[in-house]
Task: inverse folding
């Protein structure tokens, strides 16, 4: 019998696996999570699973229902919009600071990400594009040196993982967001903090527009 993962590493493994399942659509809002099933699926002890569920509940990705266990939290469109409005303010700040503070290596990586994003759109490689999108945002925040913003954005992004996945796979979405991302990259690499802030704002404004349109009734 294979020993099960325990401790902090197991706790992190389970939490990361649940986040990935949400992004990939394997878990859906409202779905109940059973500790025994998760322990078997992820090769971890029930104690590690329980701690991971508590961590994800603290991030508001899950909710713990008394005597019924954990389930994936449902995020309304309006809550998603409000989260994105908060993200926008912080990402504008980070983009502006990154334009001033990014290292040469970070600017070079941003340039590579931009080239890879162009190729992913040309190839129709949507999962690759989504991963590059995530890395772009992470790198801009990292380059900003704004640790409080990084932690706050981490908490804000938790409940949004499912929405971010759905938006990324909407028909035409990568081609629409590509020039927005390239504008952020160009401004940061070009050391233009005002342009970087404007580009980040424009991108998040478009995300909000897409979220609102997802709630609009379909035409008859």
Result:
């Amino acid at each position: 019998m294979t020993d099960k993962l325990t401790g902090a590493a197991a706790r992190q493994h389970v939490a990361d696996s649940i986040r990935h399942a949400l992004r990939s659509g394997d878990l859906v809002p409202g779905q109940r999570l059973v500790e025994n099933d998760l322990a078997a699926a992820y090769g971890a002890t029930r104690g590690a699973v329980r701690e991971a569920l508590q961590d994800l509940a603290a991030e508001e990705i899950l909710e713990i229902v008394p005597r019924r266990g954990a389930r994936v939290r449902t995020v309304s469109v309006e809550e998603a919009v409000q989260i994105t409005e908060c993200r926008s303010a912080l990402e504008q700040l980070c983009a502006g600071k990154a334009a001033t503070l990014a290292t040469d290596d970070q600017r070079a990586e941003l340039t590579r990400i931009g080239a890879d994003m162009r190729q992913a759109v040309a190839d129709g490689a949507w999962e690759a594009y989504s991963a590059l999108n995530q890395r772009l945002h992470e790198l801009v925040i990292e380059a900003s040196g704004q640790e409080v913003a990084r932690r706050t954005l981490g908490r804000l992004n938790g409940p949004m993982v499912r929405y971010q996945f759905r938006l990324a796979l909407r028909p035409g979405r990568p081609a629409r967001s590509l020039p927005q991302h390239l504008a952020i990259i160009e401004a940061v690499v070009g050391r233009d903090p005002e342009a970087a802030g404007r580009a980040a704002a424009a991108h998040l404004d478009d995300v909000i527009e897409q979220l609102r349109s997802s709630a609009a009734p379909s035409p008859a």
